[in-house]
Amino acid sequence: MTEPEDIEDRALRERLGALREDPAELGFQASLHRRLVAAGPPEPAPGWDRVRWLFRRRAPWLWPAMGAAAGVAAFLLMSAVQQPPVPPAVLAEASRPLETPGTQVPVSKVAVIKLDFTADVAVEQADFQVSLPEGLSFWADGQELELRSFRWTQALNAGSNVIPIAVRGQKPGRYLVTAEARTGDQRIEHDVVLEVTEG
What we know:
five-stranded antiparallel sheet; rod-shaped; alpha+beta; Immunoglobulin-like
């Protein structure tokens, strides 16, 4: 260090030493300490500081509670997203009509064939078809329909599902009414014998 720099350095130290103040009185320090203790720790700032403060203060129970909540949320989400597999609907054979096969129905009368399709479980959509031979016709609203075959789709409840079909014979004879139900790759066919006699 050169002599002029040494002189300047010494002068600076003397000036800085002259700036010192006397320490505060002990009474002031004690009152400040009491006020800070009474005020408690400062509130955390909003945002992530508050989250970090919560985790530090509530860590013994917050982590397990959050883990349990996450587990419940995952379970509910998986339950809502994944539907349980539906067992394949098993259709039992259509039971015999309430009128026994070979029942005699006069030509002038309308016969109601009641097909009872039984399902082990509910089926959202099943396809049905009823076919009539020549000599029989479907009957609805008091008149004969020109259809030989009728198709429709409907849901099936678990258990018994009775489907009435109104037919009328045009001439005497023994007729075979064919009813068919399909759901998925299952197909059930049932034949009903109807005997039409002279009026």
